[in-house]
Backbone:
């Protein structure tokens, strides 16, 4: 990140803080600004986790309503974006109403530390999205959070309610499955 | 058709806007939330005076009930005055020797005045003094249970002052009704 990027990021964060403060006081227009700024990322996360556009929209909508109601509890320890994502993940998990993210055996989780996945040769976005959608739920959730949205295993495991070791193992599993489905090297 | 190619999975677009604008539904839910919050606040405000009044009525009722069951019988109440009652719970002003001396002297004068009154007038004056002394007795009884109650102490002092004014009026006006 360049200094300029850093400056822009700080400005966005400060802008969020000001909007959050106004929204906390009941200013729905400030909350609308927050919605406009964050809905794309929240919806993208929901869409990749649910694989269903209607369900993803419902989840994103519910997540913002829950966020409005929970605004007084929001603490600036985490970014607003992360907090929103946590609410969105919870919403998706609640709507699934079934067993998810089953624990899988992990022999040595330390071997699965690297959350970034790269490919030997470029992949078309649609092909990659389709491959992600074909993954089992547990592996897909972790891949979306860690691979696409860049969360650490500790953050993703906390959002999903699973052990860090399970999170690492699921990512390792996702990597292997992607390699098979894309028929190319995945690191 | 999106033909964009990526080398890393984190190059996938994180922003994927929904096909429809979700804000109208969110806005409606927020408006309902605000409205329910606004409505619940006045409801509480409307309840509070009613609850307060109910509590006050209950306290008064309880006070009257306690007063009634603890009121001395007419026999034991006769002569129950600040000078003769439980002095340990008396406010300092009523334990003052000068006050007690003045009151004793006034009682003697009033007693002689009463004897000189026509029977009908004497009964009226005696009834008025009895009412006043009954009130003083009830306050003293409550003070016995709650000696530190400043309000009761103040009430007792003012009632005793009232008694002194009544006694003085009887002494000075003879048969004049008080």
Residues:
């Amino acid at each position: 990140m360049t200094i300029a990027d850093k400056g822009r990021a700080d400005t966005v964060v400060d802008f969020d803080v000001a909007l959050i403060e106004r929204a906390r006081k009941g200013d729905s227009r400030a909350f609308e600004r927050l919605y406009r700024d964050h809905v794309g990322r929240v919806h993208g996360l929901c869409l990749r986790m649910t694989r269903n556009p209607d369900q993803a929209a419902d989840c994103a909508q519910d997540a913002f309503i829950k966020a409005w109601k929970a605004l007084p509890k929001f603490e600036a320890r985490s970014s607003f974006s992360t907090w929103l994502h946590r609410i969105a993940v919870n919403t998706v998990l609640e709507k699934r109403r079934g067993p998810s993210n089953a624990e899988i055996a992990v022999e040595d989780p330390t071997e699965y530390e690297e959350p970034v996945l790269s490919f030997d040769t470029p992949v078309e976005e649609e092909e990659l999205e389709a491959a992600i959608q074909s993954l089992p739920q547990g592996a897909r959730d972790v891949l979306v959070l860690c691979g696409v949205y860049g969360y650490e295993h500790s953050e993703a495991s906390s959002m999903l309610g699973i052990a860090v070791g399970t999170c690492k193992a699921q990512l390792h599993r996702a990597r292997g499955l992607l390699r098979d489905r894309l028929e190319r090297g995945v690191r | 058709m999106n033909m964009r190619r990526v080398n890393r999975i984190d190059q996938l677009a994180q922003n994927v806007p929904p096909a429809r604008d979700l804000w109208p539904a969110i806005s409606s839910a927020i408006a309902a939330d605000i409205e329910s919050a606004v409505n619940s606040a006045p409801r509480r405000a409307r309840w509070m005076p009613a609850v307060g009044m109910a509590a006050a009525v209950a306290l008064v009722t309880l006070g009257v009930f306690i007063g009634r069951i603890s009121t001395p019988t007419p026999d034991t109440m006769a002569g129950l005055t600040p000078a003769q009652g439980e002095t340990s719970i008396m406010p300092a002003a009523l334990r003052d020797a000068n006050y007690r001396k003045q009151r004793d002297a006034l009682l003697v004068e009033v007693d002689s005045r009463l004897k000189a009154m026509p029977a009908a007038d004497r009964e009226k004056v005696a009834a008025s003094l009895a009412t006043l002394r009954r009130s003083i007795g009830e306050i003293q009884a409550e003070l016995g249970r709650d000696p530190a109650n400043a309000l009761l102490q103040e009430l007792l002092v003012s009632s005793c002052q009232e008694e002194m004014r009544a006694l003085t009026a009887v002494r000075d006006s003879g048969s004049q009704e008080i």
In short: The interface with chain B takes residues 26, 28, 31-32, 35-36, 39-41, 43-45, 47-48, 53, 56-57, 60-61, 64-65, 68-69, 116-119, 122-126, 128-129, 143, 147-150 of chain A (CB under 8 Å). The mean pLDDT of chain A is 84. The longest strand of chain A covers residues 118-124. The radius of gyration of chain A is 17 Å.
